[in-house]
Amino acid sequence: MNKRKAFLSPAIIILITIWLQNNIRAASGNDIESIIKQYQQETKCENVSVVVFDNGEISYYGDSEGLYQIGSMTKAFTGLAIQKLIDEGLVNEDGVVSDYIEGFEAYYESAKADITVRDLIEQKSGYTNIEKDYPSATEAMTLSEWADSICGRELSFRPGTEYAYSNVNYNLLGLIIENVSEIPYRDYMEQEILIPLGLRNTFVGTPDDNRIIEGTRLGYRHVFEFPMSVKEASIPAGYFYSNAEDMGRWIDIWTESSDVPEDIKEALSKIGKQLKEEGDYYSGWELFADGVTGHSGGTPNYSSRLVMDEKNHTGVCVLSNLNVAATTDSLCNSILSIVSGNIPEKLNRDIWTIFDDIFVLVTVTGMFLFPVILVVKKRAVLIAFDVILIFLLTLVLILLPIIFGAGMKEIVFTWASWSLAGGLLTIAADILGATVKLLIGNKNADHNKTGKRQTADGYN
Asked: Number of C-alpha atoms within 13 angstroms, CB side, residue 220?
């Protein structure tokens, strides 16, 4: 009897452990589904795909095969390619950019400044993401032509002394890959990185594939399809396409390094060793608190994020077809917290969601004001309306380019929600209405004065 009890006890413990693990996993799955629904309600995003990697086990939420732009998560692929070339002795990390891009120059305080490959990798080159200072490529430009267009520009700080995130750095790394390998960037990435790693659903630029989930843009608390062509010279910094399946594989590659060619495995290891302290940035990855590594991606019509804990062999990637980067980031972080057994953080509201709320109100208020302006007869009230509205419109037109470091045209027609354009047009219509009415009032007043004067003259 005692022997039977002794035999049954471990068996019962094992069964209870399995039962608890299954229930914990089920509860976690429910929590993840719940927070994804919350994300969709908050952002109005219709398509979001999530992959969860937990010690070799992969779970998908949403469409695992649909293709999304992954934005700046592309930088990790470009960074891996550069590290491979460094390991092969074809690129010197401490070599200057002009060693690999003939004739390339940059200046700081009007003196020529040497930018090293390491400066580009670590985002310490002196370039920033301010569009007016360092313009992106046009649609027709090659990487080489774009590099020529920013050659000789003044840097924002001395190379190697400060950190400033910039797409310029990784597009220049893309050109270095192209020049050193003597084949197009696209071909090198496919032949030397994507195919060897078995990433068959990851594409350099826009693929000819019907699985693409079209990007969208927010406006008046709804989403609208917003297709945008990919500029060839912007691809290395932010325009790969991929899906949840390959992102799960990508996490596996970085956390397990299983089934990876030795030359790439060496590059992976060297990149990981460069990330030592919280805030460190290297080769398209940033080190966060608690040893978590990751990167976000945001384009005008997509947002994404990947975070992974190499020590615990866990990771999460979120792909979305709406640019709500702050909310996408917090969703990804929250899911990793759930997987790790921690309390998830509250979802953050993205700046463009906030803008949408504000300019929905501006549009409604402006539409209400327009008929009021038409019926108001007091000149002082009309002048007050006109002055206040002109002041508000001028304030928006001045402040937004300063805040976002881009031209007003790009902000209104590329990045912000459609309600910003609608709100500005409504304010402009109110100003026009008030101004026209004031001018008509002045003309009528002058006409009445003239008429009275003529009558008085006739009487005299």
From this structure: 9
